[in-house]
Design brief:
Elements (H helix, E strand, L loop, with lengths): L8 H9 L8 H11 L4 E6 L7 E4 H17 L7 E4 L5 H13 L2 E4 L6 H10 L4 E5 L1 E2 L2 E2 H8 L8 E5 L7 H5 L19 E7 L7 E6 H14 L7 E4 L6 H14 L2 E5 L4 H11 L3 E4 L1 H12 L10 E4 L6 H11 L2 E8 L3 E5 L5 H4 L6 E2 L3 E6 L12 E7 L5 E2 L14 E9 L5 E6 L4 E3 L2 E3 L1 H9 L4 E11 L3 E10 L7 H10 L10 E5 L12 H8 L10
Parallel strand pairs: 1-12, 3-4, 3-5, 5-8, 11-12, 11-13, 13-14, 14-15, 26-27
Antiparallel strand pairs: 1-2, 6-7, 9-10, 10-20, 15-16, 16-17, 18-19, 19-21, 21-22, 23-24, 25-26
Helix pairs in contact: 2-9, 3-4, 8-9, 10-11, 11-12
Length: 547
């Protein structure tokens, strides 16, 4: 697999000269922690089905990483090969991420919600050499799904099943004691080589493969830790999915960089989260507002928190002011706001000292090494307070989209078009006020609108379709499909869910509401007026989720 990180060259000299790119990889940071605190607890892994968590020290984690790295080499994985893993927040997720870095392979985390439709594209597009899945998770048989996909994956060398029972189990292939040790001078990732590939939904229909190097990703993590005042004493709750950049960067990698402890929760349940907070002395976490709202509800229902749990960073959607007040009153939490993307990490963050003042009215100010600007329709930079298109540039901007440099959206001066509408206040804090790109964010999860629309267009009953978001108190947005039908055809909500089920699409992407119209709103020239559908959808009440 050949990677072309085209967005790096112009930044290398200035970013390194200014100290934002430190040329440190996760292996560098991990070895530092291993030297300084080998017996300190690195990971505590809770699983929803197990009575007790698994605890590993930095030394024990290193042993597992070494076994997995040797096992991957024995499978023929080498430098720049892609290792895909569709795992929940399990210890194996962190082990694989570190093992890839140790042998120069590229880690490709995939969300457990993905099914055949998404996975076939991603695994083939990235030419994945190894695919790691759980045998089962939350009642779904991942092993059966993955085995059924094998004939259509020509690049794949090996399927690996965590807790599998055959010769291709994680334990049999990657936790062996008889594999040769890694040779001295074995290839390891350089700080400017692609270390992570993560797919993101956008407006182009198919997922885009975001490439990050250690320098692009870690420059963000170093600055983030400073802004959020995080140290080696942190006990960090990892409940947000680690196959998202939030989970991968701030809940899996950052604790290792800090020489702190990360506590994994593999299935979200607020009551269990609070139990973990109390048992482990959790001090910090990062996730979408849904997680905070659920914990507040649990506390109001009789659960308790811990006095150590004082900092939380919310990203993915604006934070309702009432939630900030509730979280502080009920749990003593100080909620900091943030905005970012898979392409850049957390670009803007509100410091804890100003959280009460700024988190409800802004999405933070730029981290060191990052710049933002708001541009009007005529291309000029707008003054404070005026809304326009948000552009960012700097140290944590990604290395480019895999095989699709024409979609990078970066101009000659390094400015990345985020697709978001925002304004900047007099103090430099930004506020996202809309999106120019056609994406719905449901509970922190980007919904691939164009892909859903394209699939609905293929249904024989449908003449035209538009998918929009509508407001929801818990998830921020839910998904509504508006359709106009062909003459004499019918199409019900049940027909829609059955159709997507047959296509093996991720259930969390299913629209939660269907509206059948006689005709779509259009301009005189026939262009769909989607803004009118969004206005209609604003009046919809909450509806029970399909997924």
């Amino acid at each position: 697999m050949e990677f072309d990180p085209v967005l790096l060259a112009d930044r290398m000299v200035p970013m390194k000269a200014q100290g934002f790119w430190r040329d440190e990889t996760i292996e560098t940071c991990f070895q530092r922690a291993l030297h300084d605190c080998p017996e300190k607890t690195a990971v505590v892994a809770y699983r929803f089905r197990d009575a007790q968590p698994t605890r590993v020290s930095y030394r024990e984690l290193d042993q597992r990483v070494d076994q997995a790295a040797r096992g991957l080499v024995a499978l023929g994985v080498g430098a720049r090969d892609v290792v895909s893993f569709q795992l929940p927040n399990w210890l194996e997720f962190i082990v694989l991420s570190l093992a890839c870095a140790r042998i120069g392979a590229v880690a490709n985390p995939m969300m457990p919600i993905f099914r055949q439709h998404e996975l076939n594209f991603m695994l083939n597009f990235g030419e994945s050499k190894v695919f790691v899945v759980p045998k089962t998770y939350r009642g779904f048989d991942y092993e059966q799904m993955a085995r059924g996909m094998l004939p259509g994956l020509p690049h794949l060398r090996q399927l690996v099943v965590v807790e599998g029972e055959g010769a291709d189990s994680f334990e049999a292939l990657l936790m062996r004691d008889d594999t040769p040790p890694l040779p001295a001078g074995a290839p390891r990732l350089g700080a400017d080589e692609v270390m992570m590939l993560m797919y993101t939904s956008g407006t182009t229909g198919e997922p885009k493969g975001v490439m990050h190097t250690s320098n692009t990703l870690f420059s963000n993590l170093f600055a983030y830790a400073e802004r959020m005042e995080l140290s080696s004493s942190e006990v960090i709750l990892g409940a947000s999915p680690m196959a998202h950049l939030t989970g991968f960067g701030y809940l899996a990698m950052l604790p290792l960089i800090l020489k702190a402890t990360t506590v994994l929760q593999d299935a979200w349940e607020a009551k269990k989260a609070l139990e973990i907070v109390r048992a482990e002395g959790v001090t910090f976490s990062m996730a979408s507002t849904t997680f905070v709202a659920d914990m507040c509800n649990a506390v109001e229902a009789g659960d308790s928190t811990s006095p150590t749990f004082t900092k939380f960073n919310c990203a993915g959607a604006p934070i309702p002011p009432v939630l900030i007040e509730r979280a502080h009153k009920l749990m003593g939490l100080r909620i900091s706001s943030a905005w970012g993307m898979t392409e850049n990490g957390a670009v803007t963050v509100t410091e804890p000292a100003r959280a009460f003042e700024k988190s409800a009215i802004s999405d933070g100010r730029p981290l060191p090494g990052m710049e933002v600007k708001v541009v009007g329709a005529d291309g000029r930079t707008l003054p404070a307070g005026e809304s326009g298109e948000l552009y960012v540039r700097g140290c944590s901007n990604f290395a480019g989209y895999l095989k699709r440099p024409h979609l990078n959206n970066v101009d000659a001066d390094g400015w990345f078009d985020t697709g978001d509408i925002a304004f900047i206040d007099a103090e430099g804090y930004i506020r996202i006020s809309g999106r120019s790109k056609d994406v719905i964010i449901r509970g922190g999860e980007n919904i691939p609108v164009v892909e859903i629309e394209n699939l609905l267009y293929k249904h024989p009953a449908i003449a035209s379709v538009a998918v929009v978001g509508y407001p929801d108190k818990r998830f921020g947005e839910r998904v509504c499909a508006f359709v106009a039908l062909k003459q004499g055809q019918s199409f019900t909500f049940e027909d829609m869910t059955a159709y997507f089920t047959e296509l093996e699409m991720t259930k969390q992407y299913f629209p939660e509401r269907l509206e059948v119209l006689e005709q779509m709103p259009q301009t005189p020239s026939g262009k769909l007026q989607k803004f009118k559908l969004r206005e209609m959808a604003k009046n919809f009440g909450e509806q029970v989720a399909v997924a």
